[in-house]
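Replying to the earlier thread about multi-chain prediction with a worked example.

Input:
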Amino acid sequence: MALDKATVARIATLARIKVPEAEQDSLAGELSKILTWIEQLNEIDTSGVEPMASVVHMTLPMREDVVTDGGRRDAILANAPQQAQGFFVVPKVVE
Amino acid sequence: MTALTELTLAAARDGLRNKAFSAREITQAHIAAVAAARPLNAYITETPERALAMARESDARLARGERLALDGLPLAIKDLFCTDGVQTSAGSRILAGFTPPYESTVTANLWRAGAVMLGKANLDEFAMGSANITSAHGAVENPWRRRGDNRPLVPGGSSGGSAAAVAARAALAAIGTDTGGSIRQPASFCGIVGLKPTYGRCSRWGIVAFASSLDQAGPMTRNVKDAAIMLTAMAGHDPKDSTSAPVPVPDFEAALTSDVRGLRIGIPREYRVDAMPGEIEALWQQGIDWLKSAGAMPVEISLPMTKYALPAYYIIAPAEASSNLARYDGVRYGLRVPGESLDEMYENTRAQGFGAEVRRRVLIGTYVLSAGYYDAYYLKAQKVRALIARDFDEAFRRCDAILTPTAPSAAFAIGEKMDDPVAMYLNDVFTVPVNLAGLPGLSVPAGLSRDGLPLGLQVIGRAFDEETVLRIGGVIESTAGFALKPAFIAGGAA
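Result:
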């Protein structure tokens, strides 16, 4: 499948990665090439095949519903690019 | 006396127990080797002080007559494992300055066994690559050179720093991670042993996630016995990883009986790909003959879906990566690039923080998961994955293990194969199916290419049957007698 520039811009927005307009054309070419290569999967008949999400054949284990971690606010905030009064700080969202 | 950096892990363990040398001595020899190896760029962060402190504790234990499984043995840790108090970068700008306040389960298991950390090894950014050229901390060089050609070669990837460090004697052993071949392919390129265990054998907790249904940690060592020793210490059930298997960990070292009589070795006809160099075909045949002489029985098998494994992988892995890498948004850790709004801050941070290959894969992953394309790409790939796993299930009714080449080529020069992502992806043609099926795979150095570079053979086993894989690997190793060393050796000063 050939992706156009507009599709690349749309995916980039979904992925929250700024892609300068000057790079969108070449990126569309690269991604199209990969997708075309991937599309050889269409040669296979997969009707009736259950999709496989994991090789682990077990149900997720249950555990007691108790707190097992926490109370480490300062250690977690220590890596924040910006923090104040025990919170992560981000650009203003609500006027 | 042999330089302490030349010892195998097993020999170093014995030397420490017999008090032939101290943990401090072997650690100091390795710290010097790590410094001497800087031209390879194999380490991102060196931790000599921590190494010496850990060695001191080992010496105290050894003096008391206590001895842990890996006491005093200096290791390199791929910089994808979170290490408490030591910067963990995943080879990315976006994690600049990130210092985890916790320790990954696998590294915690190693330290509990008394091992010594030399530092954090370089890797492809977020483990995405097959040449270790996508790291924000620069490319890693392979310590090997082609005969009569001094151009630097890639070490393979993504665990290229781990492989280069072990091959150059700048670590007794290392740990890596393998999502599509990232332990086995660099092991093959650097002439060392690399083992990807069964999915679920080692905990993924505290490993920076790339593709969660495929990622698995494993050892990278200079021989098969060392890989067995390392895996015994690394593995085990971990309640913090719900996909970690609640199964007992055998003593893998005890599995190395050298007895492969009667074992049926599957030879998949679909692995005879077009364009495979004759020397790799010949090495593969030699491996078959070696195992036959040792009493095993080669049987031809068919894995019909082999050619579809790579395209399925390049949907599934980027899809999982796009989801896992959503957390790098400039809020909680690492890089932040300001913007007018919150969204623009995210977009600027991720634009500057991710390199070209990571960006490419996140965009592909976002696309194949997006509305209208999910069924055509992602669901289709998951169905093909089921067929690939079924291929192996059926093959293992007729054989006990499978023998293949590890990679379709020897190490290539930095700069070759770089323009075309698809050509680069083909490096993993023999390793990727193993991840999709969740099976154990071992690469053992078995010979040299025409221009003097190491080539590996891969042994694939049934789920949770690393013992048979290691046993067969041990026989290949002793028959091949691969004892050659790379051009660049960092250790040896001690």
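The two ends of chain B are 10 Å apart (CA to CA).

Feel free to reuse this layout for your own posts.
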